[in-house]
Amino acid sequence: MITLSKTEKQIIENSIRDIQDFPKPGIVFKDITTLLNNKEAYAVLMNHLYQRYKEYDLDYIAGIDARGFIFGAALAQMLGLGFVPIRKKGKLPYTTISEKYALEYGVDEIEVHIDAFGKKKGAKVLIIDDLIATGGTANAAATLVNQTGATCVECCFIIGLTFLDGIKKLEEKTNVYSVIEVK
Ligand code: AMP
């Protein structure tokens, strides 16, 4: 299994900026824009993801709205695979299936085009997003992928918040990989 060296991990970690109390008091927002505009960190990260996932025999990469699109689309191109956006409700123009998930207050909903993963049943899909917190978004995304007839083989995050139980809950459904863990 491909692992990051200590130096590579540090380059990625150091490139992520913490914003206190955004979008509301008590939240430490992990800002990945400072990873994206750091060419060394972005290259180390994308090369690591490429090395890891070239062994997986994947059919598609699915990215979660919106930061998952950035990493997912770049990785799909590197691996020579198609990319599928999983979007917030109301953004996709063709027939969709959707899944609701709980937020701290209220619910949200994401959707995917019904034919996004082609006609072949059991297409192998990697889901990617920038961060897992409670796991609600990724859980709904994995449910959607499986409902289309494809198979979510792993969910990948640049950052995993391990002080929440999102990763544990998602692991009941699929494999989970976080490049960086925040304890
Ligand atoms: P969750 O469904 O609780 O796992 O939340 C994951 C989604 O919310 C991801 O799409 C993240 O981009 C975003 N998110 C949640 N918490 C944070 C955070 N502390 N910093 C940055 N993004 C976050």
Strand order of the largest sheet: 5-6-4-3-7-8-9
**Major beta sheet summary:** 7 strands, mixed
The count of DSSP E runs of length 2 or more, i.e. the number of strands, is 9
Name of the CATH architecture of the domain at 55-182 = 3-Layer(aba) Sandwich
CATH topology of the domain at 55-182: Rossmann fold
- CATH C-level category of the domain at 55-182: Alpha Beta
Mean pLDDT: 97
Which key features would you list for this structure?
183 residues; alpha/beta; Rossmann fold; 7-stranded mixed β-sheet; two-stranded antiparallel sheet; 6 helices; globular; binds adenosine monophosphate
Question: How would you summarize this macromolecular structure in one to three sentences?
Answer:
With 183 residues, the chain is an alpha/beta fold.
Q: How would you describe the overall organization of this protein?
A:
α1 packs across α3 and α3 crosses α4. A seven-stranded mixed sheet has the order 5-6-4-3-7-8-9, sandwiched between helices. The protein has a two-stranded antiparallel ribbon with strand order 1-2. β8, α6 (166-171) and β9 (175-182) form a beta-alpha-beta unit. It has a domain at 55-182: 3-Layer(aba) Sandwich (Rossmann fold), CATH 3.40.50.2020. The protein contains six helices and nine strands; from the N terminus they run αββααβαββββαβαβ. The protein is an alpha/beta fold and 183 residues long. It binds adenosine monophosphate. Residues 27-30, 64, 67, 129-138, 166 line the site of adenosine monophosphate (AMP).
